[in-house]
Amino acid sequence: MVKSNSINTQSDLSVTDPEIYSAVSKELRRQKEHIELIASENYCSAAVREATGSVLTDKYAEGYPGKRWYGGCEYVDIVEKIAIERTCKLFGAQYANVQPHSGSQANMAVMMSCLPTGAKILGMSLAHGGHLTHGHNRNFSGNLYQVVSYGVNKQTKMIDYDEVKSIAEKEKPDMIIAGASAYSRQIDFKKFRDIADATGAYLLVDMAHIAGLIAAGLHPDPVPYADFIASTTHKTLRGPRSGFILARPEYGNRIDSTVFPGIQGGPLMHIIAAKAVAMKEAMGEDFIIYQKQVIKNAQVMADHFNENGVPIVSGGTDNHLMLLDFSELNITGKQATEWLAEANITVNKNAIPFDERGPAEASGIRIGTPSITSRGMGQEDVLRIAEWIVEILSSRQPAKTAKALRNEVLALCQKYPL
Ligand code: DSN
After folding, report:
1. How far apart are the C-alpha atoms of 354 and 103, rounded to whole Å?
2. What are 68-112's pLDDT values in tens digits?
3. Mean pLDDT in the chain?
4. What distances in angstroms separate CA 28 from CA 23, 31, 71, 376, 381, one per listed residue?
5. Half-sphere exposure (CA, 13 Å, Cβ side) for 180?
6. Among the options 59, 235, 349, 375, which is catalytic?
7. Can you give the pTM of this predicted structure?
8. Catalytic hit among 33, 41, 62, 194
9. 241 is a catalytic site residue
10. Residue ID of nearest Cα to ligand 1 atom 2
11. Catalytic residue at 232?
């Protein structure tokens, strides 16, 4: 018999907390019945999810394997050591810290490990595809540091490395950040390294979006060039929602002490276990096949948009995402997001480089293929999705057209169950 003061570990969420159970169930149904095109999302495996729901959530383990502030860490030590070893092996790195709770915390730990307050950072501007943590004025990075930004070339909409170099020569930043959240072209990390060397800056690569492509050898590798690499684990890498850091080994101690006790307390050991599982999955042949299909699917969609009056920023994609450019169309990103939602197609509005609209309306949407590819969709399926999107965006009555297409979307979702 369960004593009244003991926790029932067998409890069913639907019984213990029907309100939360109901919201979780509805989210599962939403995921099953919608085509997910948010470029930063993915579906992790059942094994990754099992680890995130494991008893490791109960364990405090401040410190690092073998050097904890709490007793009883013998099993979580095994988990964290495996996670570190696998992360290093997967990316060919010599040092990894798997404790950051997110990509933002990973970036914060890197910057705070080597930059004094007031140092200067040079990152890609958010308006051109960068990230909040690369120097936005409402983020810690923009508050703690002096910020200078680079963007994309007005004609090509690609990073202009000569321009990055001339900004770096003029501004002499202490750190250059390479990496983006809405940029569809390969990033040349060697060129960034050369610029950092010529100007005496650290090079931080934020590979959050493309970590899975890099792990599969389908995007140039930042490891030989970067001083530090920060990443999330849940985008193309298809792990749990979290982050990690790679660095040259000489920076390891500084990073470790900045993550804990510098900016975080107890690590989330259940999530670290799930990261270890995801790294193992990413070492398999299937993972490479998956990532190839992610890129192929993105290129099929981009070609269809380009050929049917909805241009892609920079003309195409080399990775898992693309930005649709509405600057010459009479629609906004906000409208498109709402219309597509009527067809159970989920995207996010996104500013495009040199956008004349504000970010709340935006002149584009960002589309990514990691999630639909995880469902098993191939080129024919994604072409159909691109056709639906064009049909909706070019309709005189977009919301009505979208609603009329919803049953076809549902049928495709049913064909590829989660
Ligand atoms: N919010 C993520 C994205 O959507 O790209 C970046 O952190």
Report:
1. 26
2. 999 999 999 999 999 999 999 999 999 999 999 999 999 999 999
3. 97
4. 9, 5, 38, 18, 22
5. 28
6. 235
7. 0.97
8. 62
9. yes
10. 40
11. yes
